[in-house]
Amino acid sequence: MKDFTEGIQCDYLDTMDMVWERPPTLLDTPMHYCPGCSHSVVHRLLLEVIQELDIQDKTIGVAPVGCSVFAYNYMDIDMQQAAHGRATAVATGIKRVLPDRIVFTYQGDGDLAAIGTAETIHTVNRGENIVIIFINNGIYGMTGGQMAPTTLEGSVTSTTSEGRNISLHGFPIKIADMIALLPGAYYVTRQSVTSAKAVRKTKKALQKAFTNQIENKGGVSFVEVVSNCPSGWKMTPLASNEWIDETIIKYYPLGDIKVPEKG
C-alpha cells in the first residue's frame, strides 16, 4: 500500500507527545475478539503492567477453554493452556515447581465460576501466591451465548429465551464476594473497563495484584473485571458498556472487596 505521507513535511510531529504505544509484551498481530470486546483492553493493561514491572522473562500465564484461549496469540510471555476450569490447579502446580516465577490465570465466568468453581475455591483456600484474573461478562461468549452462573436475573440468553428465572436457574453468583471470605485470599477487587477512569483503576488493581506476588505477600490476588460481550448480548459496543454502567454494576458493585490489613 502506498505511503501517502511520503514526501510531506511533518516537522510538527517532532513537537507532539506520545500518549500511547503498543507495549512490546503485546504481540503485533490482529486480534480475533469481536469488535468492542473487553478482552482486548484487559490484555493491553495486563501486558503494560508486566512490562512496567520488568517481569516479562519470568511471567507464566495460564488460560483455559473459552474466549480466553485466544490470549496465547497476543501475549509475548510464557503461556500454558489448561483444560476447561482447571487453570488455577495448573497455576498451582507451576508456582510450586517454579516458585521464582510470576504466575497468573486468565479466565472467563463460564470457566472460573462454573466448571472451575471447585478449583477456584480450593486454590484460594490454600492461599497460593498467584494472581487470578476473572473476566465476568455474564455469558458463555464462545460457545453460543448460553446462560452462565453470573448471568443476571431476567437476562435473555440462548438457553434462557424468556430470561433467567431465579426459581428455575438460581441466583447469579458473586464469585469475588465468595472468594473474599476465604482466609487464603490476600487481595480481592472488582473493576471494569467501560471508561478511561475505569481503565486506570483496573490497571492499578493489576499492578497491585502482581506486586503482591512479587513481594511474596502470601495468598491469592483476585481481580474481577466486569466486562461486556456485544455479540452474545446482541448489542453495539457502546450500548453494552452503557448496560454495564447502568445495570450490571448495581448487582456487581465495583471497588476493592478485600484489602490487606495495615500494620
Produce a short descriptive summary.
This protein has 263 residues and is an alpha/beta fold. Helix content is 34%, strand content 17%. It is globular.
How far the N terminus sits from the C terminus, by CA atoms, comes to 60 Å
Unreliable runs, pLDDT <50, ≥5 residues? none
Would you tell me the overall average pLDDT?
91
Over all CA atoms, what is the radius of gyration?
19 Å
CATH topology descriptor: Rossmann fold
- Reading off the top of the CATH hierarchy, the class is best stated as Alpha Beta
Strand fraction band? 15-25%
Listing every helix as H and every strand as E from the N terminus to the C terminus, the arrangement reads HEEHEHHEEEHHEHEHHE
The CATH superfamily is identified as Thiamin diphosphate (ThDP)-binding fold, Pyr/PP domains
Share in helix: 25-40%
Number of helices: 9
Task: Please provide the count of β strands.
Answer: 9
CATH architecture: 3-Layer(aba) Sandwich
The largest pleated sheet is described as:
7 strands, mixed
Domain module count: 1
Structure, described:
This protein is of the alpha/beta class and 263 residues long. It has one domain (32-258): Rossmann fold. Helix content is 34%, strand content 17%. The protein is built from 9 helices and 9 strands. It has helices at residues 38-52, 87-97, 109-115, 117-125, 166-169, 175-180, 196-214, 230-233, 237-251, and strands at 59-63, 78-81, 102-108, 131-136, 139-140, 146-147, 185-192, 220-226, 255-258. It has a 7-stranded mixed sheet, sandwiched between helices. Helix 7 links the parallel strand 7 (185-192) and strand 8 (220-226). Helix 1 (38-52) crosses helix 7 (196-214) and helix 3 (109-115) packs across helix 4. The protein is globular. The termini are far apart. The model has no long low-confidence stretch (mean pLDDT 91).
